[in-house]
Amino acid sequence: MALYFFTPFIAIILTILGGGIIFYILGFNPIEALKFYFITPISNLYGLSELLLKATPLCLIAIGLSFCFKSNNWNIGAEGQLTFGAIVGGGVALLFYNQEGFYILPLVIIAGAIGGMIFALIPAILKTYFNTNEILVSLMLVYVSKLLLDYLVVGPWSNPEGFNFPETRQFSDSSRMPLLFEGLRIHAGIFLALAAVMLSWFVLYKTYLGFQIKVSGLSLKTAKYAGFKGKTMILVVFMISGACAGLAGVGEITGPIGQLHRMISPDYGFTAIIVAFLGRLNPFGIIFASLVVALTYLGAETAQIFLQIPKYTGQVFQGMILFFLLASDYLLFFKVKILSLKKNEFRH
Amino acid sequence: MSLDISFIGILIGSIMASSVPLILAASGELITERSGVLNLGVEGMMIIGAISGFALMVITDNLFIAVVGSMLSGVIISIIFGFLTQSLLTNHVATGLALTIFGIGLSAMLGKNFVGIPGKEFPILFSSLRESIPFFGPILFGHSIVLYFAFALPFLTNYFLKKTKLGLVVRAVGDSPVSASNQGINVILVRYCCILYGGAMCGLAGAYLSLIYTPQWIENMTAGRGWIALALVVFATWSPIKVLIGALIFGGITILQLHMQAIGFRIPVQFLSALPYLMTIIVLVVISRDSRKIKLNTPTSLGRIFYKEK
Questions:
Q1: Model's pTM, two decimal places?
Q2: Quick check: ipTM above 0.90?
Q3: Is the Cβ of A323 closer than 8 Å to some Cβ of chain B?
Q4: Which residues, in sequence order, are CB contacts of B157 under 8 Å at separation 6+?
């Protein structure tokens, strides 16, 4: 068990070493490049605020995904649920674009969560009633939602005074997340993420639903034998996951962005899958993992400015983290294998 | 706009050209999936193929080396996936996603110095026949050799899977790795080969984009085609010939969009772009409801980890 929570650290160290090697090959001083990447961005208050700003959506989505992954439901379309949540929440915010009122922001947030939830229900319903593969459906829906957003911001929802830029009106101040500190972008959305962490810990470890989720993840046969309602559980975990992704989307548009446009998320929905794995599907592990992965985003931006490397390098680091993490799981598998696997058996 | 017969010929020709990367990547992924391995890294392998093909073309000034090199780079990057999923028994879905994320990042890193360099003209075959025969000329002639290969590939793949012993081995490994293993087949080796083959085809698909279709390097230039190719394999219910048909439909939608934009048609282009994804979901629902239909071609052990105790 100790090894289970230790291997993520091995993966992070190996990723940093791997990154150093890549920087060396590209002709940079690896120590200096890594310093620009991992230390410079968080060496001041503004940087720390940016780190938390980027960790917030990652943490929220990964918390939701942990419910799905723990119960063996492969929702990999969180990016789509984020986008659809942002569309629904953004739609509500646009309804109130010229109004002020304390009730607007809660409405926008709830609308976003419901939007994400509805969008996640599509693969869940198709899985439960038509036996359709949820991996492929949730993935396909990512592109459908992004195209829908694209259609809305260039078409019916585009800003009438916006000179045909692909963006909506600015939301009114009442639809914006309150900022925590003057001059920093960190906003109240972080409390949503922390609440999600606490709630998920409670549900997963202290309730019957959490028990069902864990048992179903370990062995579907056992879950059936125990008489758990498998279909309801699938719907519930997808709804939780979608709501979290929707909240993340709404947090972005009401937080740093303040309107809808094409690029509301730098693939947070996909990267959160890495966060969920790196955090070992554990609520507190996910907090830590979201900070680490948020740093790869931030580092990539800093490296782009100081070293003129494309900011896509963040994805090289993210990919490597997951590669090394999965690889180091082999150590664990060997321990488990002796106990659980007979000759020539499969492992999911 | 005149809708005369020669225009339709040119239109069909351009639909064929736009479907080539889909056919190549989907045919490769089809073999991988028929052996029971789900590789979600198609997009990543394609973009690596695209940059390495283009970079080799610029460096060596030799298109043959560029094309072969792009396939090789697809193989190399798929080795990562093969090693993790087959030797270290990692989860296929997570590993494939990591491969795509990694590939997109790495390609942008490698391609930094190749942005804005003009491409080289790729030789086309039978260009004189293209002009002289109306309608059929632009359809049948004046294409690159990669296009002809792509259109032959689904038939070759079909023949390989249905008529050859090796094809039978691949299908056996995908349908029942335990029985195949008991028959003395090296399941892991077969799956490795299928993964590497898939990598080569995805690499070639990427090179088609950066060397022939739009001969230049642009960051993220595969633009989701890898995911469409992945959808295509399911859309085709794992049958190579249907991959060809599906690729033409999906490619046709892409071309249709461009023309509709040009003539100012009122259907939003985004709805057309979403069609391949929606159609795939519908096909998935239909085949999943009827278990007999899906059993015909679906590799039963798709995405499951096979482990053989030594």
A1: 0.89
A2: no
A3: yes
A4: B27, B30, B31, B240, B243
